[in-house]
């Protein structure tokens, strides 16, 4: 299969999957208990005419299929509707909070890749006490959920030691980096442990392959053997985790942003779910699904470049 044909097929699959996801997301909000009109009235009693006016304004009484098609048409034009709680366009709300979330996820992703790969490399290459320490550390990391890590880090480094801010997003790039340091660490901890373990296992497996033994018998320096013949052959396995890593970061950012009071889309999703702000929940959910699918699409395109033995459209461990 040619690269162009594969890319076009995957794009068509992504479009179909997004359409199905949009239907499920809208349907879940449609079937959710509660009435947005009650929130708009802030618990105040209102006449049937007032309820009718609100329902007409937001088309809440229209049949499901009409509401869905109207919403889908707006989404295709880049219009996610109007927030019920904030009374402003949803795209404006998301646009204001998206930079904080993207920076948080980006910082966490850098930590996951750099620290996870480094620990996996050390455990596989050094062995002995170093490998034991890596296994103990990664076991602790994998066993610590993001919200627990957020509470522990906030209590130690913010409340007790006062080294980092306890919450907020900061203003300006430097201030944002400082404020998001602890949230990014809490967000990355679990994935660091998981990636380190996968990298270590993959490298140990490749070390037992014949081509590695042959390279060593020819007098190739151990450093080059590890870099060219071992680590390079594990990158395919690591790359297949790309979608899982990004999706986990996006999901866990809801808990971490809430714990650290970060003004991102994760916190916005949590607040909007509580207040039944359906347009915001629908928009953020669809964006998360789209990002996840885009990452998997990029991984599928890069995998054959990292490991030529993998054909376009296939996934699996290399070695």
Automatic annotation (TrEMBL):
GO terms for cellular component: plasma membrane. Its main location: membrane. The keyword Isomerase does not apply. Keywords: Cell membrane, Membrane, Transmembrane, Transmembrane helix, Transport. The chain crosses the membrane at residues 12-32, 102-122, 134-157, 177-198, 235-260, 280-303. Belongs to the binding-protein-dependent transport system permease family. This is ABC transporter permease. It comes from Streptacidiphilus fuscans.
